[in-house]
Amino acid sequence: MRKLLLFLLVLLIGACKNTQQRNMGNYVLVIHGGAGTILKKNMTPEKEARYKAGLEEALKKGYAVLEAGGTSLDAVEATIRILEDNPLFNAGKGAVFTHDGRNELDAAIMDGKTLGAGSVAGVRTIKNPITLARAVMEKSEHVMMVGNGAEQFAAEVGVEIVDTSYFRTEERWQGLQNALKEDSIKAKLDHSFLTPQKAGTINHDNKFGTVGCVALDHNGNLAAGTSTGGMTNKKYGRVGDAPIIGAGTYANNKTVAVSCTGWGEFYIRSVVAHDLSALMEYKGLSVQVAGKTVIKKVGDLGGDGGLIALDKDGNMAMPFNTEGMYRGAVTKDGKIEILIYKE
Fold first, then answer.
1. Quick one: CA torsion of 187, 101, 209, 106, rounded to 10 degrees?
2. Per the annotation, does 62 bind a ligand?
3. Which of 40, 169, 175, 332 is the most exposed place for a label (fewest CB within 10 A)?
4. pLDDT tens, position by position, for the chain (343 residues)?
5. Architecture (CATH level 2) of domain 27-341
6. Which one of 210, 249, 322, 331 is the catalytic residue?
7. 264 marked ligand binding residue
8. How many of the other CB atoms lie within 10 Å of CB of 4?
9. Known catalytic residue: 131?
10. How far, in Å, CA of 86 to CA of 70, rounded?
11. What's the CA gap between 279 and 43, in Å, rounded?
């Protein structure tokens, strides 16, 4: 009897290990739609369903690209375009307003195979900024373009341009009005040096709506992309981490693809996306441990937010230090996972 029990125990342990192995290295695409104070008690069932549907549509789009043999870059761009076109998210159509009542858009994309990268910041007429970021990478000798110059380049290379009114949504406009009425404590993020102690008292934007995607294709190539409308009531042409390579966006076939969302100033100062890759490359940390490490660094400085990361072997991580983060992933066999709250 004792030998039989021991034999059964060995079988059980082996089965558990096999299950873990099947669950590891199984992801091909991961997305986020922003992190912040996202509480189930504040979410109506209808709105939660809309967010989940939006995330699912984006995941299915990216997965279809990969299944058809598309590159990780193709999948990242296609996925983020879906999120940019969805007014629920703070990117593209749903971008928040600046203090001056404008929509200013930022985006970046990076190729893990070549370390090629492209980004744009402060554009106002580009329907899908992620597409322009890719054009900067592939059709220019530069990495980053901003403002009017980026829009001039867009016109020259045929990237779709729209009137500024396209980006206006009533919900975002009311968000700006509320911020102005409150004397916009949040806007101080853009022109005041905040110690970690002071930062912790700021009642800043309830939700960072940056969107992002990381992907791994059939050829083993990684790519990352991020797109955002910035921070409600921002001033002085402030730019966050999303379009800054190594801060909010990074991809390297040797290690990992990363897209961040959160309080951008802290992600820039911590060079979060590249730091995660470096921890994996130089210290041999797993993507999960490296992800938790860099988010802790952000928190220790007084910032908050989260990130998504997908390593070269298909292991993924979604760490965050806020109440929630819109996030989802799809496995290589097409299984979709969508999460919103701390779970």
1. -100
2. no
3. 40
4. 555 444 444 444 444 443 333 346 799 999 999 998 788 888 899 999 999 999 999 999 999 999 999 999 999 999 999 999 999 999 999 999 999 999 999 999 999 999 999 999 999 999 999 999 999 999 999 999 999 999 999 999 999 999 999 999 999 999 999 989 875 444 444 333 333 334 433 444 444 679 999 999 999 999 999 999 999 999 999 999 999 999 999 999 999 999 999 999 999 999 999 999 999 999 999 999 999 999 999 999 999 999 999 999 999 999 999 999 999 999 999 999 999 998 7
5. 4-Layer Sandwich (3.60)
6. 210
7. yes
8. 8
9. no
10. 23
11. 36
Q: What does the DSSP 8-state code read for residue 126?
A: B
Residue 263 among known ligand-binding residues: yes
Tokens of 168: 């206006």
H-helix or E-strand spanning residue 153: helix 147-157
* Domain positions in the chain: 27-341
Report whether 212 belongs to an annotated binding site.
no
